[in-house]
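Figure 6 in text form: structure in, sequence out.
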């Protein structure tokens, strides 16, 4: 007997989203495999955040079906964690770094004594071992974003949703964090749904890139990115296949726009 293929981590089945009397997204059908790193890109206003919010259970589809690991979504799930672009607002300013990570553990009802070693491990994982007692306001933008990632990891999510998480960071910090997220996702086999408007970032990170077009938001292209892993900021970005895919997607986004 043939083994059944595993359920997709995220299955979008003919999803439509209407908001304020307007169709924002239409006809989104896509299966994301467990452990896949999927990047969603497209111009501002094409519905990327809305699509991510549907997966997070924060926006309900007006038509179609969304399932996570074979189960229909009925609101936010502990299996899913979200990293927002706006780290300043995502963190609690009156709690130190350790306290912010503890939030996720408290929510899961973990006893305090068990929390401490886990918090230490998580902070070390994102390079914040020596900053456990600093408050968000005392951390750089990159460090605050690392802290938000540590807090999400504390939730031990099966699916990590990231909404332009590195958009506000300088180029070097951004590249560092890209590599850290790739390593963390690979280590845990986390499914990542990563939203960006940056085509190069999408190609650098993704196993596949999903390009959306606006008005209404719809699938324009789904591209396989068969570049070797681990990716490398120089070698990958200089690879002829990377450059060819970049040109192809760039042309497509500009022709049809
Ligand atoms: N609650 C809402 N009510 C009405 N319209 C909404 C609502 N939320 C989003 N929209 C509209 O949906 C469209 C898509 O918005 P969304 O934020 O998903 O785009 P985006 O691709 O994430 O854009 P950006 O790259 O600028 O973040 C926009 O036209 C926006 O005005
Ligand atoms: Mg957005």
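Output sequence:
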């Amino acid at each position: 007997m043939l083994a059944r293929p595993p359920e997709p981590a995220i299955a979008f089945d003919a999803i439509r989203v209407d908001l304020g009397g307007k169709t924002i997204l239409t006809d989104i059908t896509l299966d994301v495999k467990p452990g896949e790193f999927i990047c969603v890109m497209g111009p501002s206003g094409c519905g990327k955040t809305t699509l991510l919010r549907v997966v997070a259970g924060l926006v309900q589809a007006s038509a179609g079906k969304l399932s996570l690991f074979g189960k229909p979504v009925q609101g936010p799930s502990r299996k899913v964690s979200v990293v927002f672009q706006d780290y300043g607002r995502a963190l609690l300013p009156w709690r130190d770094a350790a306290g912010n990570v503890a939030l996720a553990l408290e929510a899961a009802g973990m006893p305090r004594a068990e929390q401490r070693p886990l918090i230490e491990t998580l902070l070390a994982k994102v390079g914040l071992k020596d900053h456990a007692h600093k408050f968000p306001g005392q951390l750089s933008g990159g460090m605050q974003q690392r802290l938000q990632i540590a807090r999400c990891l504390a939730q031990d999510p099966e699916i990590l949703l990231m909404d332009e998480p590195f958009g506000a960071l300088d180029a070097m910090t951004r590249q560092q964090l890209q590599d850290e997220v790739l390593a963390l996702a690979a280590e845990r086999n986390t499914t990542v749904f990563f939203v960006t408007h940056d085509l190069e970032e999408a190609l650098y990170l993704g196993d596949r890139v999903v390009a959306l077009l606006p008005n209404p938001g719809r699938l324009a292209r789904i591209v396989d990115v068969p570049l070797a892993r681990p990716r490398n900021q120089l070698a990958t970005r200089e690879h002829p296949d990377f450059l060819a895919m970049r040109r192809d997607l760039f042309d497509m986004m500009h022709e049809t726009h």
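Caption detail: The chain has two domains: 1-79+159-257, 86-156.
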